[in-house]
Task: structure prediction
Amino acid sequence: MDVDIAHLQGWIGREQTESEVLTPTLVRQFNATFDRRSGTAPGEVAPLLIHLCLTQPIAPMSGLGRDGHPALGGFLPPVPLPRRMWAGGAFAFRGSLRIGDAVTRQSTITDVQLKQGRSGTLCFVTVSHEISANGHPVLSERQDIVYRDIPAGGRARAEPPAAPAGQHSRSLTPHPTLLFRYSALTFNGHRIHYDKPFCIETEGYPGLVVHGPMQATMLCQYAADLKGEPPARFRFRSLSPLFDDADFSLNATPEGGGLKLWTARPGGPVAMEAQADWD
Result:
């Protein structure tokens, strides 16, 4: 498929600002989804990475594409490739969000690049987000989005080697209800997370796809639990998908003054790798 990269790069510099109040109800819903506990009263510190559930795009049904995402060509460039995935990202924390804060996300498209991968053409869009609470900066985020074609049938490429077990490890079940709840929290209509017939018959996946941001949230929370405090910086990269057809694990191993983290299914390759640092 031909991609007019010069046209798409015209979106670089485009900005978008959204605001939303962080409510006790959202915190309760977030904690219930991740089986965690925290305070829910106004003024208390909110759970780590709950900002991914705030200020998300809200498009009418008539404004959705074939995959349930908002149609392209508004804030995001109209990349003519059918699959859209969260490839990775990074967070630099400057403070904590608190319940009752008015949270604002200032988003800017900073880069659009075309690359050739083993599966064909890839288009990477980088978005920077500055998150503030009541007008005060709280965290900076880089979001890497990848667009790709649906691969043609043929001989499957060799799978990467199985991931090792971490010094710390925790097993999780990607139940369809968990995936649905996270989609609802983030107002994410992407059908690969809840519509199994679409996943199998249209996308060619073996099951529902486990959200990248949800894996990142779990890994970041795991790092904070192991260290006893939230990291100052956290970055992550998706390497291979996880599906709802098998359990997966969170893994962590000390590296320098931080933690190297990853997710994987039993006997499978690293799905998402991450690094948490405290200095």
About this structure: The radius of gyration is 19 Å. The chain has a mean pLDDT of 94. DSSP finds five helices and ten strands in the chain.
